[in-house]
Specification:
about 120 residues; alpha/beta
């Protein structure tokens, strides 16, 4: 079965790195570059897992996470926040918004893939 992963980051470099880490493992990767696009693509593609940056244009990752987790059609999407925010308070707040996991940048490709695989 094909597994879709939605990757959301406003940095083209980060998007490419995350795509590369996942495509080699056979996932279908869909990307978004801001919070509003992330919400649209989550509704459209219904990914199993979403890798979500926190600092985004239009809506931040915390807002996107909270909205997806409180919407019946998207509440089952597993959300992994991937952020350069390394404070315990950021991690705490992210989990409080409904995130399933929190990874800090820089991460390694194997860590990212293992995180996705945990939720499949």
């Amino acid at each position: 079965m094909e597994t879709t992963v939605l990757v959301v980051d406003d940095s083209p470099t980060e998007l490419r790195a995350m795509q590369a880490a996942l495509k080699g493992r056979g996932y279908t990767v869909v990307t978004a570059v801001d919070g509003e696009q992330a919400l649209e693509k989550a509704m459209q593609f219904k990914p199993r897992v979403m890798l979500l940056d926190i600092v985004l244009p239009k809506k931040n990752g915390f807002q996107v996470c909270r909205q997806l987790k409180t919407t019946p059609q998207t509440q089952d999407i597993k959300i992994v926040l991937v952020s350069s925010k390394t404070q315990d308070s950021d991690r705490f707040w992210g989990m409080k918004q409904g995130a399933d996991e929190y990874i800090t940048k820089p991460y390694d490709a194997a860590e990212l893939a293992a995180s996705v695989e945990r939720f499949l």
